[in-house]
Write a structure and sequence with these properties.
about 900 residues; alpha+beta; Ubiquitin-like (UB roll); cysteine-type deubiquitinase activity; Ubiquitin carboxyl-terminal hydrolase; hydrolase
Length: about 900
């Protein structure tokens, strides 16, 4: 006759024994019985029960000499440990190592006994809850850093003090453990050796508690013992193991040579997310933090945070990545959380890994920010105070409002200096940074052709070929062109894009990329006085009558000159001023007398061009007349130098008749163009233009008559040269740059963009100040973002320049201006986010140094494989992660 020990099993748990009590039946809180396996196997053969063997229990050590059918609780030591395994798993057969027992539902056992005409009923009325605590002990995995992990099985009824004593006994610790961490997230951080003996319930029975024991001053003998191989422990007798209540195995979490080498499933173009997550998941400080009791730091009331949901989702994902299972992890839940708070990352489109990284770090910081009420801190200017004093003040203010593991790990500080170009007023501030976005200087060059015009008629138009970086800025183009045309210190260049006889757009934003300009575009640059600033300008476009289009007395066709002309309007101007400005702009194009002495018909047109420039208004006429051909050259010269708003005296008119003056005047007709570029039929009379209501850019269309075309060299007006094709330096060693070159480009002084104007307190207006950055305080983990991607309204480009970055020793001491920080300037590379391909389609991976494995690994979504250190340097490197040495 069989006698069984009874226990309570939770129906909610059906996993292996390390997860708690197994389910004995479908109903919750059903009783289960523990019976000798051989007896149960014989009974099953004689009359197979409906449910079969649900679980088998194998004693961890040899039981007492008693063997037979008796109540197990009468001879099992309270500390006896049973390894529970599912039916069908290893160890469930008869004769498996140690004594074997079957775990059978009580009602099913009763039916079996009844069929065998057993008169023995289960009259034992032991408390199921009390017995279940011993039959199904909790499982605590106790680990020592840098060692194997041991599993201790204890009773659910034990309080934390008893748990601590067991750990103390197992490790035979000479000095007391200091920290015990609960990785289950169910309890707060505790010091178990400081707890009182109150009967706390550590966790729910179906959960597994993960405890990390940090031991200070561990003895060499213990280190040797713990540091041994798993084989050494498995070869110990089961009795020895049971004496310590220890089952040697790897825990679910920890830091071993295989932990952390788990891939992430690609949910559809989510490689950008996987790459960033893997880099963060191998940042030691974050790993230690999120595998600890981090949830106590969650700030759910922070209006800038995400209610702690992002931190919880990231922490859960990090725990799964550091599990012992090597199966790839699906980040579906984490991605869903990100999409809730950042809709730009929803869906399954490709995104920028650095943009996700920036959002993730900022979101984690706000979720974990320990500052509940942020104090108001007014930013103060340096005002001549020492830099260190000002920097410390700014940093203290920053920490008063921001306190999280993200700040401790990733935040640094740089010095920002603004200088007014007008009064030289300087403003110094010290701002925090989470990562450095460095420009990538490219050795690929682009040759561009630009035609430069004067705005005062002093120089004829000239086309220049200049070379700029392939993805350089308009500021690079302006500097190259200024050098080519010998631009004066009192001049500036205004570059425009010309299309169809019109200025399509003014290229006035220095930071815009030259990649905006296509190969077939045409550029015109105008030399303007530096003091002009936002003074009104007049833009002339031109049309002319083409005699060759006149066939069979058909009216000649109007054709357009391609290049417009531009000039600054004076403060007071009228219609006559416009005419004189235009004529002066044409002066460099006028043929000399010897060149233009004969026209196509053989008639002498000498002096016709001079008529346009030297005309003076008659007191009774709105038109100008030409001086006599015999007039001295000095009088012509004086006429050119006259003020445009005033006409010369009548004594300079010469001997020309009124009819001659009227004929010459009719060679040009001036018409208004509206703001939309549409031609209007309103002809401008030279004394009837009210410039007080003129917009900043007055558009005028000039009609050339047939007899005027031959007097000027119009080749530069009829057609502008196109921008040349790309001329790239072949890829290779030449197309590379050192990381220090990127840093120097980032720290160099440069002007602010027009949209980022700085208000100068001395000038009392916004100025395009010069900005200079310097590194002041470096973080523990330095994240460097290489700006390979450029986005414009029309184009998207990626730089494939090879950046040669140091691996073992990144020395930033030469860039730190605070000399007291020089000891913390050396970094070692430990992770890289790579991007392969172009902007249209690419793929992200991560190259990571695994500290426990002592080598580099490539994380390509689900695939994780070892790689050599030499292979990590590629043009695909996008985000670099450095750890302070």
């Amino acid at each position: 006759m069989a006698t069984a020990a009874t226990a309570q099993a939770s129906a909610s748990s059906s996993t292996a024994s390390t997860r708690g009590s197994p389910a004995a039946s479908s109903s919750s809180h059903s009783a289960v019985c523990l019976v000798p396996f051989r007896w149960w196997a014989r009974v099953r053969e004689e009359a197979p029960p409906e449910g079969g063997v649900r679980y088998a229990a194998t004693a961890a050590a040899s039981p007492s000499s008693y063997y037979g059918l008796r109540l197990l609780h009468s001879f099992l030591h309270p500390d006896l440990v049973l390894r529970l395994e599912r039916g069908g798993c290893r160890g469930t057969g008869a004769g498996a190592g140690g004594r074997s027992y079957a775990l059978v539902p009580a009602d099913e056992l009763s039916r079996v006994l009844a069929r065998q005409n057993s008169s023995l009923a289960l009259h034992n009325k032991h408390s199921f809850a009390e017995d279940s605590a011993g039959a199904y002990p909790l499982v605590l995995r106790i680990s020592v850093r840098e060692t194997s992990i041991l599993t201790v099985k204890i009773s659910k009824k034990d309080n934390p003090v008893e748990n601590y004593k067991r750990a103390y006994k197992i490790f035979n610790i000479d000095s007391q453990p200091v920290h015990v961490w609960d990785f289950s997230g169910q309890t707060n951080l505790i010091l178990m050796n400081e707890w009182n003996r109150s009967n706390h319930d550590c966790c729910h029975s179906e959960l597994e508690n993960i405890l990390e024991v940090q031991v200070y001053a561990m003895s060499d003998s213990l280190t040797s013992k713990i540091g041994g191989t798993s084989k050494e422990y498995t070869e110990q007798s089961s009795a020895d193991v049971n004496d310590m209540d220890v089952d040697l195995s790897y825990g679910s979490f920890g830091r071993s040579s295989s932990h952390g080498l788990i891939g992430l499933e690609n949910l559809g173009n989510t490689c950008f997310m996987n790459s960033s997550i893997q880099c963060l998941a191998h940042t030691s400080k974050l790993v230690d933090y999120f595998l600890g009791d981090y949830d106590r730091d969650i700030n759910r009331t922070n209006p800038l945070g995400l209610n702690g949901e992002l931190a919880l989702a990231f922490g859960e994902l990090l725990r799964r990545l550091w599990n012992t299972e090597r199966k790839p992890v699906s980040p579906h839940h984490f991605k869903a959380k990100i999409a809730c708070f950042a809709p730009q990352f929803s869906g399954f489109n490709q995104h920028d890994s650095q943009e996700l990284l920036a959002f993730l770090l900022d979101g984690l910081h706000e979720d974990l920010n320990q500052v509940k009420c942020k104090p108001y801190e007014e930013a103060k200017d340096a005002s001549g105070r020492p830099d260190k004093e000002v920097a410390d003040e700014y940093w203290s203010n920053h920490l008063a409002r921001n306190d999280s593991v993200i700040v401790d790990t990733y935040h640094g500080q740089y010095k920002s200096t603004l200088t007014c170009p007008t009064c030289s007023k300087t403003s110094v501030t010290f701002d925090p940074f989470m990562y450095l976005s460095l420009p990538v200087p490219s050795t690929a060059k682009r040759t561009m052709t630009v035609t430069v015009f004067s705005t005062d008629g002093s120089i004829e138009p000239i086309s220049y070929d200049v070379t700029v970086p392939q993805f350089g800025s308009l500021n690079d183009l302006v500097q190259a062109l200024s050098s080519a045309c010998s631009l004066g210190d009192d001049e500036i260049l205004l570059i425009t894009e010309v299309y169809n006889n019109r200025i399509l757009r003014y290229l006035e934003e220095p930071s815009d990329s030259v990649s905006l300009l296509r190969d077939g575009d045409k550029l015109a640059a105008f030399r303007l006085p530096r003091k002009y600033e936002k003074s009104p300008v007049v833009v002339f476009t031109h049309q002319y009558f083409d005699e060759r289009s006149s066939i069979d007395n058909i009216t000649p066709q109007m054709k357009e000159f391609e290049a417009p002309l531009l000039a600054v309007l004076p403060e007071r101007a009228n219609g006559l001023t416009l005419k004189n400005i235009y004529l002066k702009l044409l002066e460099p194009l006028r043929f000399s007398k010897s060149t233009s002495s004969l026209n196509d018909s053989g008639r002498c047109n000498s002096g016709c061009a001079a008529v346009m420039m030297d005309a003076t208004p008659d007191s009774d006429s709105k038109f100008q007349s030409a001086p006599s051909e015999n007039a001295p050259e000095s009088s012509q010269s004086e006429t050119i130098e006259c003020q445009m708003t005033e006409g010369p005296s009548e004594s300079n008119i010469g001997d020309t008749t009124d009819s001659d003056r009227e004929a010459h005047m009719e060679e040009f007709e001036f018409y208004l163009i509206n703001g939309r570029g549409e031609f209007q039929q309103t002809r401008i009379q030279t004394d009837e233009v009210d410039l007080q209501t003129t917009p900043n850019r007055l558009l005028i269309n000039v009609h050339w008559q047939q007899n005027a075309v031959g007097q000027y060299d119009t080749s530069m007006l009829k057609s502008l040269p196109e921008i040349h094709k790309l001329e790239l330096i072949p890829k290779g060693n030449e197309d590379s740059v050192a990381l220090h070159g990127c840093l120097e480009a980032f720290l160099k002084e440069e002007p602010l963009g027009p949209e980022d104007m700085w208000y100068c307190p001395c000038c009392k207006k916004h100025q395009q100040a010069m900005k200079k950055l310097d590194l002041w305080r470096l973080p523990e983990v330095l994240v460097i973002h290489l700006k390979r991607f450029s986005y414009t309204q029309f184009t998207r480009n990626k730089l494939e320049t090879f950046v040669d970055f140091p691996i073992s020793d990144l020395d930033l001491s030469s860039y730190i201006i605070d000399k007291s920080e020089l000891s913390d300037c050396h970094y070692r590379l430990y992770a890289i986010s790579n991007h392969y391909g172009n902007m249209g389609g690419g793929h992200y991976t991560a190259s990571i140094y695994h500290e426990e494995g002592k080598g580099w690994y490539k994380f390509d979504d689900e695939c994780v494989r070892p790689i050599t250190e030499d292979s990590i340097k590629t043009p695909a490197a996008y985000v670099l992660f450095y750890r302070r040495e």
